[in-house]
Amino acid sequence: MTDILLLNGPNLGILGEREPEIYGHDTLDDIVAMVREEVAAAGWQVIAVQDESEAELVRAVHRARHSTVGAIVNPAALMMAGWSLRDALASYPPPWVEVHLSNIYAREQFRHESVTAPLASGFIAGIGAYGYRLAARTLLHLAGADR
Ligand code: DQA
User: Fold this and answer.
1) How many angstroms separate the CA atoms of 15 and 30, rounded?
2) Which of 13, 37, 82, 135 has its Cα between 20 and 30 A from that of 29?
3) Is 74 annotated as a binding residue?
4) Is 102 in the pocket of ligand 1 (CB under 6 A)?
């Protein structure tokens, strides 16, 4: 079985209720289902992890290092100073795509620089939950599994 990691950082477990004017109405379960649907035809499975704690996210990246073919990562606020998550991702060999629901560049200055983004294979922001679908397609494409 081929697995990908879908990693979501702090406060993303309350999507749907959380500032819907910024983050939309989709819940995290909706997003996980969307990613599962996108990769199902290729026979891929999704390991979905959301946590408020950076330590748990670091552990999830470590666990996935050799057992997944790629990852979709929304580091949430850890994009700003999540240095241990950044270092865990630096040691994650497969391609991974950073996703932000909102357009972080159209928001407060403190959201304009992501410490994790320079390591990502790709970056998607500002198109809401649809960004996760595009990230899933990107991983399929990079693995040659979209043909
Ligand atoms: C976010 C953007 C971050 O700045 C913020 O801290 C989040 C969500 C997004 O998906 O738009 O929690 O990652």
Assistant:
1) 10
2) 82
3) yes
4) yes
What are the phi and psi torsion angles at 112 (to 5°)? -80, -15
Any idea where the domains of the chain sit in the sequence? 2-142
Using one digit for the tens of pLDDT, what is the confidence trace for 20-50? 999 999 999 999 999 999 999 999 999 999 9
Tell whether pTM > 0.90: yes
Contact status, residue 10 vs residue 51, Cβ threshold 8 Å? yes
Helix, strand or coil for residue 140?
Answer: helix
Examine the residue annotation and report whether 100 is marked as an active-site residue of this protein: yes
Q: Which of 105, 109, 111 maximizes ligand 1 atoms within 8 Å of its Cβ, making it the mutation to test the pocket?
A: 111
Please, what CATH class does the domain formed by 2-142 belong to? alpha beta
